[in-house]
Amino acid sequence: MDENDRAQPDKEERRLRGVLALLAGQPAAVVCQQYHICRSDLYKFKRRALEAMREAMTDRPRGPRKPSRRLAPEQEQEVKAACERHPTFSSYQVHRALGDGAPTPRTIQHVRHRLNLPRLPKRAAPRSSAHRFSAAEQQLIRKTITAKLYLGPYRLACDLRNQHGLSVSPATMKRRKRAIKEEMNPPLAPTVWRRYERKHPHSLWHGDLMEKVTLTYENRTAYQLTLLDDYSRAYVFCDLFREVSVITTIKAIIAAMRSYRTIPKALVFDNGPYFKGKLLKLFCRRLDIRLIHSAVYHPQTNGKLERAFRDDMNEFYRRREKWVLHELRRDLPEYIEYRNHVRGHYALRGRPTDTRLKEQNFYALPAVLDRLESYAWCERGCRVVGEHGLVRLHGRAAYIQPRLSGQKVRCYETLEGLEAEDAGGNCYLLRRYRPDICRPLRSGKDQTRPYYFTHLRRSRRAEFAAPMSVESHRTTALNSPRITVAL
Q: What is the pLDDT of residues 260-298, one digit of tens each?
């Protein structure tokens, strides 16, 4: 035994005897000298002893008695009979078998223990212990599975038994094979979704088509072209079309810009042909708009609009028995008014979208908004006019002025069609360029039909280079249409 362990009881004994001697009336100096305790410690121990004695002598009120787990003889016999009738039941199962008024499962456990009523297992105990594979056997199993991954678990078990004399169940082989495959090809990390939201209205517009509106009498699909503001979740543009092209998309963007008197900072589209092309790309570049296309097969980038389409289908389209185009287009503005000004949104804490649209405090210049069509054009190369003013376009014949035969004209695609400009600056327009000229050749009859250019008095494309006439306080160099006016 350690010397410190022996000295501890002696020290406590001296303190106790010193306190008792002081309480008996001996002088403090004598007690301190006799028991080797300083005067301050002696009085400290005396105070502690008196507090402990006072605490021990204080009467305490009795608390409530714990309820007894003793049952009436009739109820105890009923529990005993149930436990003997169902020896494999747990106390909870016996409680349920007895029905209403039965003792608690804990009380049933006490009755079982007091009456020595055993609970039997549902199946007999195994007579032999389970076989555990040794390290060498596990290595052999792993080597066999790795060498023949193309075999199933039953064939692998047969090969092990016939070649190495090792009996393994097909279920075990299946489990081991699955574990080896997971080691060789670990699962991908879970996708971490990035949730984003712009901080100001008209910072980002989402654009997409809903292609689920099948017209009742026409046996064809109508397309709902929608532009949604990311910050406010408001529909800045929504309409139905039988056919949609990149021209339709640009006209929808222009209509939304003029409606809200603004120019968005960015546009998000998917990879559809109506959202791509040189015409849309140059239109956005000239207006200083960032054009973003989502990843292929990744609709989550446009998730806000995809979720809005589900609401449109439930709240507008499925409430109608017939889907007639002119009726849908007639009633669609009323639904958009409800969606933007009445309907609450979970992301906005139940508020409508117009509460965030009212935060808009910068507006585009009217001079820019009036000539938005002049920004939508792109060059389509040069053509040499043939005999009788014939110009070949995508395998089709188009005729321009015969006096231009042998001359070179420069072609530009605009929202109105294909515009041709000669050396003298005269412009000619071929309307319906995309639906008629750019469509694929399906028969020989398409090549025989002629198309004609018409003289164009006013060219929207030419207005792009013309200077803007605005008030003196707004005129700087308006080459950047991003210049806005705060109201």
A: 999 999 999 999 999 999 999 999 999 999 999 998 888
Instruction: Kindly state the tokens that stand for 303.
Output: 């998730």
> Which helix H or strand E contains 253, and what residues bound it?
helix 246-260
Count other Cβ atoms within 10 Å, centred on residue 53: 11
Closest CA to 231 of 338, 352, 357, 361: 357
The type of residue at 245 is: S
- Rounded CA separation 250/374 (Å): 12
Handedness of CA 403, 405, 409, 415 (dihedral sign): positive
CA distance 139 to 142: 5
Where does residue 113 rank: exposed (0-12), middle (13-18), buried (19+ CB within 10 A)? exposed
Ordered DSSP codes for 89-121: --HHHHHHHH-TTPPPHHHHHHHHHHHT-----
In the predicted model, residues of the chain with pLDDT beneath 70 are 1-9, 63-69, 441-448, 465-487
| pLDDT tens string 15-47 | 888 889 988 888 888 888 888 888 888 899 999
Report the alpha-carbon distance of residue 321 to residue 478 in Å, rounded. Answer: 51
- The b/e string for 430-445 (b: 16+ C-beta within 10 A; e otherwise) is beebbebbeeeeeeee
Q: What is the pLDDT of residue 478?
A: 38
**Type and span of the H or E element at 467:** none
Angle at 361 between CA 357 and CA 362, to 5 degrees: 115
Percentage of the chain modeled with pLDDT above 70: 90
Residues 6+ apart with CB under 8 A from 344: 350, 351, 352
How far apart are alpha carbons 363 and 345 in whole angstroms?
26
Cβ atoms of 271 and 294 closer than 8 Å: yes
Asked if residue 94 lies in contact with residue 83, where contact means CB atoms within 8 angstroms, the answer is yes
Nearest to 37 by CA among 59, 14, 56: 14
Cα(478)–Cα(480) distance, integer angstroms: 5
Q: What's the CA gap between 446 and 424, in Å, rounded?
A: 32
Q: How many CB atoms neighbour CB 151 within 10 A?
A: 16
- Report the distance separating Cα 155 and Cα 138, nearest Å: 17
DSSP 208-220: EEEEEEE-TTT-S
Measured CA to CA, the distance from residue 75 to residue 53 in angstroms comes to 48
Alpha-helical regions (H) of 25-104: 28-35, 39-57, 73-85, 91-98
Residue 16 CA, chain-centre distance (Å), reads 73
